[in-house]
Amino acid sequence: MHTEHKIIIGNSQQMPELADSSIHLMVTSPPYPMIQMWDNLFAKADPKIGALWQKLEADGKEEIVGQIYNAMHDYLAKVWRETWRVLVDGGIACINIGDATRSVNGKFKLYPNHARITEICEKIGFTTLPYILWKKPTTKPKYKGKGAFLGSGFLPPNAYVTLDCEFILIFRKGNLRKLPPHDPKRYDSAFTKPQRDEWFSQIWTLKGTRQAASQLERRTAAYPDEIADRLIKMFSIKGETVLDPFLGSGTTIKVALQNERNSVGYEIDDKVLPVISKKIGTSKVNMATEVQIIKR
Ligand SMILES: C[S@@+](CC[C@H](N)C(=O)[O-])C[C@H]1O[C@@H](n2cnc3c(N)ncnc32)[C@H](O)[C@@H]1O
User: Fold this and answer.
1) Which of 267, 270, 279, 295 to mutate to test the pocket of ligand 1 (most atoms within 8 A of CB)?
2) Disulfide: which of 10, 122, 241, 258 matches 262 by Cβ 3.0-4.6 Å?
3) What is the CA radius of gyration of the chain?
4) Dist. CA 242 → ligand 1 center (Å)
5) Is 101 a pocket residue for ligand 1 (Cβ < 6 Å)?
6) Could you read off the pLDDT of 127-169 as tens digits, one per residue?
7) Are the C-beta atoms of residues 30 and 255 closer than 8 Å to each other?
8) How far is the CA of 222 from the centre of ligand 1 (A)?
9) pLDDT tens across 282-291, in order?
10) Edge-to-edge strands of the sheet including 203-205?
11) Cα–Cα distance between 30 and 168 in angstroms, integer?
């Protein structure tokens, strides 16, 4: 089957390249608010966030931390709103997100990103569906937010529960998809019974991606192919179009291509383009697939 793939180097808060109701499925993992590795990206992409960090450094007032957290979610919310516009009626949005724990100004607390995104998507109009917990088997327990569970030994009460799950939030725009009866492409996209039993259960135990060799590759914090592969097969039909508004290393496009879906990915950081090209193997693309790179 001929499929088409677009890598758009640009900010997905606006997706003028995409018509209303033209996308069947969105699969993504945004930068996680309050996770340190994404601080610079948020501050650079939204000067308001950068200014708030500076204000926090100068004033040290705790309420500013809340303002930073809100501003980071406002930044992501623009993308969720634009996703709503481009999804077809009944289209699904899957968002992989982790909560964050962090000490700011000496105060340790949880930032429940999954809850905030759910509230925001509900306000946009999405219907919230049951979510998946992605359990990563490797994370070690923490003590006071730092490293391993050292120091407290086995003594109550000051240790914290480890964040060893991430969320895959699932939302639907509007009503259930309406499909013609006996659609051959839909039947050709069927999953098996073992796949159905495993994929539609709530806990997925999957290892994270191995630490990539180059700093550039690490910067994208890629999710495993298996996550994108399951979601694409669960919520789209061959020949349909999948969107990733936070493309990173290009995992979603690579997997869409392997599964005979069209795809569109947005990435704000043009330095990641060589990583994307390497992952998708743009040089190896054959007659059946067309990959376009668009720089805004
Ligand atoms: C967590 S990474 C995505 C990782 C991806 N799932 C993968 O497997 O490689 C988030 C990506 O979103 C990009 N990004 C952040 N804000 C963006 C925006 N407004 N538009 C497009 N890309 C953005 C970042 O540069 C980063 O590469």
Assistant:
1) 267
2) 241
3) 20
4) 16
5) no
6) 999 999 999 886 565 555 555 555 566 788 888 888 999 999 9
7) no
8) 9
9) 655 566 788 9
10) 203-205, 127-135, 165-172, 87-97, 23-28, 241-244, 262-267, 3-9, 289-295
11) 12
Ligand 1 centroid from CA 34, angstroms: 15
SS3 220: coil
Ligand 1 touching residue 41 (CB < 6 A): yes
Would the CB of 77 count as within 6 Å of ligand 1? no
* Residue 243 near ligand 1, beta carbon < 6 Å: no
Does the CB atom of residue 265 touch ligand 1 within 6 A? no
Whether residue 210 has pLDDT greater than 90: no
Q: Are 65 and 56 in contact (CB under 8 A)?
A: yes
Residue 72 phi/psi, 5° resolution?
-65, -40
Extract the tokens encoding 292. 């376009």
Other C-beta atoms lying within 10 Å of the C-beta of residue 282 = 18
The closest of 177, 172, 168, 285 to 240, measured between CA atoms, is 177
What would the pLDDT profile of 74-103 be if each residue is shown by its tens digit? 999 999 999 999 999 999 999 999 999 999
Q: Does ligand 1 come within 6 angstroms of the Cβ of 29?
A: yes
Query: 10 Å Cβ neighbour count for 64?
Result: 19
Nearest to 162 by CA among 132, 142, 147: 142
